[in-house]
Amino acid sequence: MFIINCPYCGERDQTEFTCHGEAHIARPDNPSEISDEEWGRYLFFRENPKGTHFERWTHDHGCRRWFNVMRDTVTDQIIKTYKMGEAKPEISNE
Amino acid sequence: MSNQPQFFSPLTQKEKIASDNISLELIDFLGKINVRLKEDDVQARDAVEKYLTYSLPKSAGEVTGNNETRVLWLGPNEYLLLSEDEKKDNVINGLREILSDLFCAIIDVSDYYLTMRLSGPKSIEVLTKACPLNFDQYLTKGNSCAQSYISKATVLIDRLSDDLVFDISVRWSFADYLWDWLADSSNEFIFSEK
Questions:
Q1: Which residue of A has its CA nearest to B61?
Q2: CB nearest to B60's CB, from A9, A60, A64
Q3: Are A4 and A18 in contact, with CB atoms under 8 Å apart?
Q4: What is the set of domains in chain B, with CATH numbers?
Q5: Which residues of chain A have pLDDT under 70?
Q6: Which of the residues A33, A82, B105, B112 has the least number of beta carbons within 10 Å of its own beta carbon?
Q7: What is the ipTM of this complex?
């Protein structure tokens, strides 16, 4: 069983959660002024790293809140979960 | 045919279970009010607490209440207020009045959820068959609640007392399915002397 620590509810089973892709993507403030290429980059281009990745998750079968997860894409280890709006944690090089 | 609206519950046809080990019954027509306040709005919180005369749940899984109403924690800015069906309109109007100038949402969800009561010494054993909650960590004592799912139906489980009594609220469209599932899972604990 894979346990995820919801910042609001505590440790719960993975099956209660859903992943919604990469976190910390800011919508451009001036969509009408930027080029199609820049808009396309915002809409479609994602990091896809081998290693630490930042994701948005929801606790669908629990408190139904959104939060961020710092996860290693190689080992699947969840390094940290934190609330929406909190700063992106530093990646340690250990 | 009468023109008066007829109130009925989708589960009235179901046969309730009553045995020494496990019991399952329907809790009909319970007033349920969803209350949402801003997480950091102390003023709104104080107003609601003053109206209810007790404090709102502060952390996950907490339940507070008195003889008339009961408040369950649903999220950091969301609560479910339970009351008698006849009194819910008074509560809704009362809350709307005291919160009229504040940012909030008071929604009557009484008909959206159905509540069934599972009790008896084997109730946790029945629940753990298809609920991923760790019952050593959550719902360990009375007046606690947790949201999870039971066999694919999203539920809110409210433990009423230190005895094993659980009120399970489920979306009404799932109620028939969940009742059948709970009845079927309880079957092995019911002994009949024939």
A1: A9
A2: A9
A3: no
A4: 17-28+111-189 (3.30.1360.120), 30-108 (3.30.70.1520)
A5: 1, 93-94
A6: A33
A7: 0.87
What is the residue whose two structure tokens read 């008339």? B68
Chain B CB contacts of A12 under 8 Å are 132-133, 148
Residue B22 to residue B184: CA distance in whole angstroms: 12
pLDDT at residue B175 is higher than 80: yes
Q: What mean pLDDT do residues B9-31 have?
A: 90
Tens of pLDDT, residues B147-157: 999 999 999 99
Mean pLDDT of B122-144: 95
Instruction: Please report which helix (H) or strand (E) contains residue A68, including its range.
Output: strand A66-72
Reported as a pLDDT band with limits 50, 70 and 90, residue B193 is low
Cβ distance A63 to B133 less than 8 Å, yes or no, reads no
Options 4.10.280.10, 3.30.2270.10, 3.40.50.970, 2.40.50.140; which CATH number does A9-28+49-87 get?
3.30.2270.10
Q: Residue B92: in which H helix or E strand, if any? A: helix B88-98
In this prediction, residues B109-133 reach a mean pLDDT of 95
Say what the pLDDT of residue B28 is. 84
Buried b (16+ CB within 10 A) or exposed e, B125-163: bbbeeebbbbbeebbeeebbbbbbbbeebbbbbbbbeee
- The position carrying tokens 């969800």 is B109
Q: How far apart are CA B125 and CA B68, in angstroms?
A: 31
| For range B4-18, the mean pLDDT | 85
Report chain A residues whose CB lies below 8 A from the CB of B60: 8-10, 63
